[in-house]
Amino acid sequence: MSDKLTKIPESPKVGMVSLGCPKALVDSERILTRLRADGYAFAPDYVGADVVLVNTCGFLDSAKEESLAAIGEAIAENGRVIVTGCMGNEAEVIRARFPDVLAVTGAHQYEQVVDAVHEAAPPTRGPFVDLIPAGADGEVKLTPRHYSYLKISEGCNHSCSFCIIPQLRGKLASRRIDAVLREAEKLVAAGTKELLVISQDTSAYGVDIRHESRTWKDREVRAHMTDLARELGQLRTPEGEAPWVRLHYVYPYPHVDAIIPLMAQGLITPYLDIPFQHAAPNVLRAMKRPANEARVLERIKAWREICPDLAIRSSFVVGFPGETEEDFQYLLDWLDEAQLDRVGAFRFEPVEGATANDLPGAVPEAVKEERFARLMEKTEAISAARLQAKVGRVIRVIIDEVGEPDEDGDMGATGRSQADAPEIDGQVLLRDVPQDLKSGDIVDVLIEDADAHDLFGVIA
Ligand code: SF4
Q1: How many helices and strands, by DSSP H and E, does the chain display?
Q2: What is this structure's pTM?
Q3: What is the pLDDT of residue 292?
Q4: Which of 115, 406, 428, 449 could form a disulfide with 455 if both were Cys (CB 3.0 to 4.6 A apart)?
């Protein structure tokens, strides 16, 4: 054998710890996509990595602590650590605690992160690197192949008093509509069955670029939520099916009304994620929430008349400064009327740099706890009743995971209905599924039972 065999250079390996919200996950995917294009491989653990990237979240103080703990763990386990993401804007805090970090970059500073990785572990260049197989679309995805997040903009033009996102991520910067649609088309062609549209404020999409039009498939399409929804509703998978299109972070501006008929026609998923945060006018004013004047209860009623299957998810903050017992009771009564399908709740927590910290009327921790428990009790009862009403119906379910056969050879699976977004909402648990069922399949399911969060059923 020749002793002149060319040694294939080994690609440097990058480890990634991704914390925070779906938007941060999309950032992690973009960074990894760039790095793979540069010839890097990925290490599944600290030990095999030449450098570890920690994508941090800096939204709440508790998230910052979690980010600092993750950085500490990566330093202890590997030692060569680059920090990026929202908490990267507080480089001094990170460097004071961990002087050994190699670099700190902020949210969306893709170039800087990639440069820092190049410096810490120089890329291997050469023809062999190009033999590394790419995924179907050449992009790295951290979500399962059958669903994908589609980020349509960065930043936010509002100034909610509890939030520092505009400081962290800047003003609204919308992506071009044709670029968004091209990405969505690629994802669907590569196997995505469900697109999750995300941004800080999806209903404000395109405001910053004056809803500019671009040519897409021989027609003019505006950078506007309605046009976006309509176009996403035209996409088809390679099997000719319409993918599910789920809208997150929508504020109840009047133009949202135009989306509901698209849901009723089956073009987009009858699901709206609207972070109301509160209902009492005093609290909403103190929170400086966008679109809080809109007569929301009437509109929800009208939306459900047009699209009876519309599922609404929301989140609420209890114990906001100045929230009185009357305000809180107002919220509970409002929830009785609104009958939201899914609700997440948070106890107010001051965030460094947020103007809400200076508001008078701090609510004692014990009162926050008590209100939190009352809110959860109320929303669980509503959720249980709404899920119970689905028992006996046949609904569409997307399969997330198929289990192993038990000793009798029976298999179960978990999936989600159109009312359930991945990771934040409930599940549909299936019994006795066929052996050839796969994640990403969309099937008709007869609902046999329900609890406060999940549905149980069998393929119809
Ligand atoms: S709308 Fe308000 S809460 Fe949402 S990102 Fe903008 S400022 Fe923050």
Answers
A1: 12, 20
A2: 0.77
A3: 65
A4: 428
Report the atom number in ligand 1 closest to the C-alpha of 169: 5
82 lines ligand 1 (CB under 6 A): no
- The dihedral built from the CA positions of residue 100, 103, 107 and 113, taken in this order, carries a sign that is negative
Q: Using a 6 Å cutoff on CB, does residue 160 contact ligand 1?
A: yes
pLDDT tens-digit readout, 297-322: 999 999 999 999 999 999 999 999 99
288 lines ligand 1 (CB under 6 A): no
Residue 126 pLDDT grade (very low, low, confident, very high; cuts 50, 70, 90): very low
In this prediction, residues 162-184 reach a mean pLDDT of: 90
Measured by CA distance, the residue closest to atom 8 of ligand 1 is 163
- Three-class SS of residue 256? helix
Ligand 1 lined by 201 (C-beta under 6 Å): yes
**What's the 286 CA to ligand 1 centre distance in angstroms?**
14
| Domains in the chain, CATH or no CATH each | 13-131 (3.40.50.12160), 147-388 (3.80.30.20), 394-459 (2.40.50.140)
Other beta carbons within 10 Å of 393: 14
